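Hi R.,

As promised on Friday, here is the backbone we talked about, encoded as structure tokens. Could you run it through your design pipeline when you get a chance and send me back a sequence?
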């Protein structure tokens, strides 16, 4: 968190990790560090533009913070979109074509809980838009920091 310049975190995860206690362990770490946080745990498998827009709206309402992506590929992809949209007021996920030249998103920290997608290594995100199937990439959505640990990834 210190690397981002923020003392607040917007944690993006899913209900499965919340129910399994994984998110709770991460939140205890933030509590111990005195980091104020909000949690968006509504990321669906293969997140949709609506899913990302809802997360971005919650992040904007929470205010300036680093985005902490805790989960597998779907969570990391959604968090990239949430970070990008939250840093660009008025932007929506369905307007991916307009986001190629977007301003930087919120700082992003990736904490992968799977070891196969590689989503923590790049600025691409797979977000489902059944109407158009657009693609967007923004270098600010590339996590500059990733925390892979056997504590978070299990076979």
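Update: got your reply. Pasting your designed sequence below so it's all in one thread:
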């Amino acid at each position: 968190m210190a690397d981002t310049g923020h003392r607040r975190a917007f944690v993006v995860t899913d209900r499965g990790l919340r129910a399994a206690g994984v998110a709770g362990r991460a939140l205890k770490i933030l509590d111990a560090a005195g980091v104020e946080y909000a949690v968006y745990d509504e990321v669906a498998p293969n997140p949709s533009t609506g899913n990302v827009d809802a997360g971005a709206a919650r992040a904007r309402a929470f205010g300036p913070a680093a985005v902490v992506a805790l989960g597998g590929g779907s969570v990391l992809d959604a968090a990239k979109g949430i970070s990008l949209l939250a840093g660009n007021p008025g932007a929506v996920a369905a307007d991916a074509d307009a986001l190629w030249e977007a301003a930087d998103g919120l700082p992003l920290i990736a904490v992968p809980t799977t070891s196969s997608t590689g989503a923590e290594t790049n600025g691409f995100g797979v977000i489902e838009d059944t109407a158009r199937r657009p693609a967007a990439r923004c270098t600010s959505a590339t996590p500059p920091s990733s925390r892979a640990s056997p504590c978070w990834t299990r076979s």
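One thing I noticed while checking it: The first strand starts at residue 8 and ends at 12.

Thanks again,
M.
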